[in-house]
Design goal:
- It is a single chain.
- By secondary structure, this protein is an alpha+beta fold.
- The chain has one domain.
- The chain is built from two helices and three strands, in the order ααβββ.
- It has a three-stranded antiparallel β-sheet with strand order 1-2-3, with helices on one face.
- 17% of the residues are buried.
Length: 138
Amino acid sequence: MLRRQPPSRRGSQRRAVAASELAVCLPIIVLLVLGMIEACTMIFLKQSLTVAAYEGIRTALQPGAVAADVETVCDGILADRRVQGGVVTINPPNFETLAPGEYVQVTVSAPADGNSAVPGSFFRGRTLSASATMMKEF
């Protein structure tokens, strides 16, 4: 025959089981949440670099545009999106002298460390970059 335990004893055993389950599951849940936040931050950073490179290349193809114009547009977009440490590279650097039909490439890169939302980032030491290439028509 089963012996019933007093109600106060059953409650304390349930609390002990809940506490041990929390101790096992909480670190895993916290790690998953931090990983999702960091992944979303890096996706936003990559998209920001892509937009800056695209707008930079569009500026480079305007008649009379110079490298300073391209860098100003790219830096403005990066500043609007709060991207830290962005670097703009134009290839070839003297694109103003290119003949119609030749290609211009703008590459924008930024370090993941300075743009991470989580301290001790999962993307530590990496640099993300995006580039856009278009043909000069004028």
